[in-house]
Amino acid sequence: MMAPRMLVDDLNLLGSYLARRDIPVLDLKNLGAPVEWIVLLGSSLLGPIRVAAEAFHRGCSKGILICGGIGHSTQDLRNAVRSHSAFQKVETENRAEADIIHEILMTVFEINADALLVENKSTNCGSNAVEAHRLLSRTRSLPSRLVLIQDPTMQRRSHESFVRAWAGEPARAFVSFAPFAPLVEQTKAGYQVKGDIEGTWTFDRFVSLVLGEVLRLRDDENGYGPKGKNFIDHVEVPPEILDAYERVATNFQVRQSA
């Protein structure tokens, strides 16, 4: 069994790597000029919604494109919305992620409908990128720059999915900004994941997400790169990330079989 301190350090290293941030702060100083769209990608978390809304109100973008149909995280998002004091009046039943988030942005964060665009057909990261491209190609001119905001554990793979899906276009700039960096801490009660005022995940769920994401980024027969499912281009995952992945994966295999 892995020593607790090493487990915490490895998980924080993996979480930091996955939570890609191309700029330290999402503001005009770091962007240089407003982007055409912030692309807010649906997930089970509420924190990304607040981060996108605040960035819009600071003038970082001209609008927000919300992506997300009905997928594996949809019910978790619905449950989170229902239990949040500020969002409880938002209807969630049988609604896609993007439609729920759209209503929150309008009613809670007071963003006008004409600044919002909804893509509610996609069901995964790759589909988010493809459907966003399709929607903007059909209804608007394709932007030269986009800011991408996603669940931190999926931020890096989402970025790679957009690079792949938009590869046939002239050079585009995708600026990734994970809404927060997950932080694992050990307490007397066990391990917990912190990092956002709107809540994160249970510890076991976080470990599962992190291990799954590194596995998908690896360019081998089990990954999403050209040597595997070919959903994304080759990603050069740093050796220290792969080493941390192996230690955490081995630890949890032992733990689950105990």
Average pLDDT metric: 92
Q: How would you spell out the order of helices and strands?
A: HHEHEHHEHEHEEEHH
Largest sheet: 5 strands, parallel
Q: What is the straight-line distance between the termini? A: 10 Å
- Structural class assignment: alpha/beta
How much helix is in the residues? 40-55%
* Unreliable sequence segments: none
How many helical stretches?
A: 9
Number of strands: 7
β content, as a range? 5-15%
Largest beta sheet: strand ordering:
3-2-1-4-5
The shape is globular
The value of Rg in angstroms is 18 Å
Please characterize this protein's 3D structure.
The protein is α/β, with parallel strands linked by helices and 258 residues long. It has 9 helices and 7 strands; from the N terminus they run ααβαβααβαβαβββαα. It has helices at 4-18, 28-31, 47-57, 74-83, 97-107, 125-139, 155-165, 203-217, 239-257; strands at 35-41, 61-67, 116-119, 145-149, 173-176, 183-187, 190-194. It has a 5-stranded parallel beta sheet with strand order 3-2-1-4-5, sandwiched between helices. It has a two-stranded antiparallel sheet with strand order 6-7. The longest helix is centred in the C-terminal third of the chain and has 19 residues, at 239-257. The N and C termini lie close together (10 Å).
